[in-house]
Amino acid sequence: MTSRLLPLLIALVALPSLAEKADRTKPLVLTADKQGQIDSVNQRTELLGNVVITQGTLVLRAEKVDVRETRDGYHQAYANGTAGQPVSFRQARDIPGEAIEGTADQLEYDTKSETVRFLGNAKVRRTRGATVAEEVTGAVIVYNSRTEVFTLEGGSASPNPNGRTRIVLMPKAQPGDEPASAPAAAMPLQPSTTLTLPRKPS
User: Fold this and answer.
1) Could you give the CA distance from residue 141 to residue 86 in angstroms, rounded to a whole number?
2) Bridge partners of 100?
3) So which residues are the signal peptide here (predicted)?
4) pTM of this structure
5) Of 8, 23, 52, 30, which is closest to residue 146 (Cα–Cα)?
């Protein structure tokens, strides 16, 4: 029996800056290894084989991608991975060295709302260099890069037992938390060259 969880909203705390703002003004670039199809009438493009979509710092990788242009000129991308290679997503944040990364069986990206929808075995994390600051896993994760709010849903497609959503928040380093250095080796005693012994009374 599949457990049903109510959607959960979580805003990453203490994150004053948003995802890279300049990305929204950059062109959407698509590349692929295999055949593609462009339907100009229906404003639709399909690509197969190691598909890579870039828009500024945003990078989306998938086996198959279907991109549709809306009437108001925005794009909606529907990406699918394979059994051994899920869809991956990465976008830098305005904070230098930080990024949002995620993987899922399927992914939907909407340039108008600036949202990414991770579907099936979804995992999204915020990284600081090579360190993971937060990690979220669940059946469905919707990430709004404009507000940096995650909408989380559980379900049978979750990688966790019973389809439960899982959130891991790493502790922040505090001043003085640097690992204590090893105590200095004891110095051998040396005879003083300046002290003089008091004279014995005669």
Assistant:
1) 15
2) 91, 126
3) 1-19
4) 0.69
5) 23
Say yes or no: domain 8-169 is CATH 3.40.640.10.
no
What three-state secondary structure class fits 161?
A: helix
Cβ atoms within 10 Å, residue 129:
10
Question: Which residue type sits at 59?
Answer: V
CA angle 58, 61, 63 (to 5 degrees): 155
